[in-house]
Amino acid sequence: MTFEQTGLEGCVIIHDERHGDERGWFTRVFDAALFAKSGFKTRIDHTAEAYNAHRFTLRGMHCQTDYFKDAKLVRCVSGSAFDVAVDIRPTSPTFGQWAATRLSAADHRSFMIPEGFAHGYLTLEDHTTLTYHLFTPYQEAFQRGFRFDDPKIGIQWPAAPEFISQRDQKLPSFAKFVKQERLDQ
């Protein structure tokens, strides 16, 4: 298991090391000791999956705020997706910047998104499933987000989304999100 830096502190792409033979292969997707050594949380609160029937389905940009800032390890187990993290830590030198990677069932990589980041993705194939290992309890009252297409952030999505939830379509601009969350103070 190796960690590839993205340029945003704490946000890394994790490459698995496979061990295979005529039966198939085996790999670790999480290692508490290695994660602790790298400064990440090691207690997974829960694991979830998101299935997407259609390619070009967009989910995001989502985060939890206040005392329930969430960290997550995201992995694609079927299909593929363009996975994005945006730094929303107000004191970070990379505040408002984004990093992305393509995750697929074929490449067996994971994306570690630490606390203080918003997350979203665009599916690139029909029948795409992403698995999330979440290190913080889900708290609906602290769910927030901002527009995936905000020009201030300027995410370069590989295609135009065709399926977006009503909730995500109504998310505020990044500037309004920052003001609502008092991230600019």
What does this protein structure show overall?
By secondary structure, the protein is mostly beta strands. It is built from three helices and 14 strands. The strands form three sheets. Strands 1-2-10-7-12-5 form a six-stranded antiparallel beta sheet, with no helix packed on it. Strands 6, 8, 9, 11, 13 and 14 form a six-stranded mixed beta sheet that branches. A two-stranded antiparallel ribbon has the order 3-4. β3 and β4 form a beta hairpin.
Say how many strands there are: 14
Q: How would a textbook summarize the main sheet?
A: 6 strands, antiparallel
Number of continuous helical runs: 3
Mean pLDDT: 91
Query: What share of residues is helical?
Result: under 10%
Name given to the CATH homologous superfamily: Jelly Rolls
The assigned structural class equals mainly beta
Return the CATH class.
Mainly Beta
At CATH level 3, the topology is: Jelly Rolls
At CATH level 2, the architecture is: Sandwich
- If strands are numbered along the chain, what order do they take across the biggest sheet? 1-2-10-7-12-5
Straight-line N-to-C gap:
39 Å
Q: Could you name the ranges where pLDDT drops below 50 across 5 or more consecutive residues?
A: none
**In what range is the share of β-strand residues?**
35-45%
Helix-strand pattern: EEEEHEEEEEEEEEEHH
Per the principal axes of the C-alpha atoms, what is the gross shape?
Answer: globular
Quaternary status of these chains?
single chain
Concise account of the structure shown:
The chain is mainly beta and 185 residues long. 9% of the residues lie in helices and 41% in strands.
